[in-house]
Amino acid sequence: MSEISRRIFTSSAAAAAVSAWTAKSYAAVPGANDRLRVGVIGCGGMATAGHMRPLTRAKDELNIEFHSVCDLFDKRADSASQLTGAPNKSRDYRKLLDNKDVDYVLIATPEHWHAQISMDAAAAGKHIYCEKPMTWNVDQAKKVVAKLNAAKNIRMQVGVQGMSDDSYEAANKYVKDGTIGKVVLAQIDYSRNSMKPDFLNTPADPNIKPGVNFDWNAWLGSAPKRPFDPNRFFNWRRYWDYSSGIASDLFIHRVTRIIKSLGLTFPQRGVGTGGKFAWPDAEGEVPDTMNILLDYPEGLTVQLVSSMGNNSMIEHMLRGHKATLSFNREGFVIKPQDPFAKEAQEISFKKTGREDTVLHHKNLHNAIRLGEALKCPVELGYYGVVASQIGVQSLRKRQYSAWDRNKERIVKA
Fold first, then answer.
1. Which residues contact 257 (CB under 8 A, 6 or more apart)?
2. CA neighbor of 403 nearest in space, from 302, 244, 270, 260
3. CA distances (Å), 394 to each of 111, 237, 254, 288, in order?
4. Which residues of the chain have pLDDT under 70?
5. What is the reported pLDDT for 16?
6. What is the DSSP string of 325-363?
C-alpha cells in the first residue's frame, strides 16, 4: 500500500472490515457472452443520475451487470444497490477492487480521490471509467498517465462525455487541412443561473452520522484533516481542498472540446480571473464567476468564460484567418471570412454522436472488447487538467502562469 493510502486508512473503521490489500495484477476478463461486470465507487448525485440510472435502463443492450457498489455513506451504498441490483456493497473501495469478478469500475467520487483510486484500480487489473476531471492536480495527472501507460492491458476512459460527440473530431480535420486557415482564437463558455440565495448548494442529509453510517476520515483522504463538516461533504465542489469549482467541474468539459478540435496538447501561458461576484457571502471558497485565457505554442488563444449568475451563452467557435467554425446543436457550420468569400463556400456538418454518458461507457466497452480507440484517453485528460489548473493557480496567486514543458509543471510566467 502507498504511504498516502496507509495514512488515509489508518485507524479507519473501514480498514478493520477488510482483509489486507494486495495489488493483484490480473487482467480483467469479460464474463459469460462478453458481459462486463461493473463496480461503482462513489454513489452520490452524479453517479446516480448521470450513470447508474441510464446504464441500468440500457444494461441489456450494453450486456453489462452491476456487481458491486461502494460508498463511505451507507445510505448511498444501500440506494445504489437497490437501484442497480448489485448484490455486493461496501465502504472500502479496496475490497471492491480485490474482487476478481469485477471487470471495470466507475469512479464518481469527489475530485481529490480520482487519482489514488484510478491507480489502485489499474494495479488491480480493472478497466476504468473515471469522472472528470481526471485528477485534482497536475502532479496526480502525471502519475495516472504513467501508471496507465505501464499497465498496457488496462483501458481508462476519462468522463468528459462530450468527446462522444463526433463534432470535435470532424472539426479537427477541417483545421488540419487548412479549410479555416490559421486559427488565432477559440472561444467557449459554460454558464448557469439560479434564483437561490447561493450556488452549488445541496442541503445536508440529516441522517448522516460520522462513526456510525459514514467514515469522515476516509472521505478526507489526502486532504487536510478537519472536524466533520456536512457542508464540505455535501457541497465539496465549493472548496479548494477537494475541487476547483468552475474550472474543474465545468471548464474541463469545454476546454477538452477545444483541445480535441485544434489538436492541442499543453498551453504555453495562462491567466485566470474572477471572484465571488454574484454571491459574495456564499459559503465556500471557489468563485461564482471565472474566466481563463490560455495561449498555446501553436500561436492562438483559447478563451473560457463562465458565470453562475448569468447564463447567456457566447458562441462556441474557432476563429480562423480564412473562415469561422461555429459549433451548434446539430454539429457545426463553417462560414468564410469576407475577404475569402469568393474562393470558399459555407460548409455544414451534422454530428452522429452526442454528449452522453451511456455512449461514453459504450465506447469504453468497445475498447475493452474490440480494441476501439477511446474517445477521452488519459493523455487527453491530462491536457485538460493542465489547462484548468493553469487558470486556477493564476487566479489564486493573482499572477500570470506558464507551463514548464521539460519538468511538466506549472510555474510563474
1. 162, 163, 168, 188, 316, 327
2. 270
3. 20, 19, 19, 16
4. 1-33
5. 34
6. EEE-SSEEEEEE-GGGTTT---EEEE-S--S-HHHHHHH
CA dihedral 242, 248, 253, 258 (to 10 degrees): -150
> How far is it, in rounded angstroms, from Cα 183 to Cα 325?
10
9's torsion region: left (phi>0), alpha (psi -120 to 50) or beta?
A: alpha
Angle at CA of residue 132, ends 240 and 250, nearest 5°: 65
CB 347 within 8 A of CB 171: no
Task: Name all domains of the chain by residue range, CATH numbers in brackets.
Answer: 3-154 (3.40.50.720), 165-195+242-353+378-412 (3.30.360.10)
The contacts of residue 196 (CB under 8 Å, 6+ apart) are none
89 within 8 A of 224, measured Cβ to Cβ = no
How many angstroms separate the CA atoms of 366 and 30, rounded?
12
Burial environment of residue 57 by CB neighbours within 10 A (0 to 12, 13 to 18, 19 or more): exposed
- Burial code (b: 16+ CB inside 10 Å, e: under 16) for 92-108 equals bbbbbbbeeebbbbbbb
pLDDT at 33: 61
pLDDT of amino acid 233: 98
- Can you say whether residue 178 is alpha, beta or left, with left for phi > 0 and alpha for psi between -120 and 50 degrees? left
Q: Is the dihedral of CA 23, 27, 30, 31 positive or negative?
A: negative
- Quick one: cell of 169? 473530431
Picking from 86, 2, 103, the residue whose alpha carbon sits closest to that of residue 43 is 86
**Partners of 327 in the β-ladder:** 332
Backbone angles phi, psi at 211, to 5 degrees: 85, -10
* Burial (Cβ within 10 Å: 0-12, 13-18, ≥19) of residue 273: middle
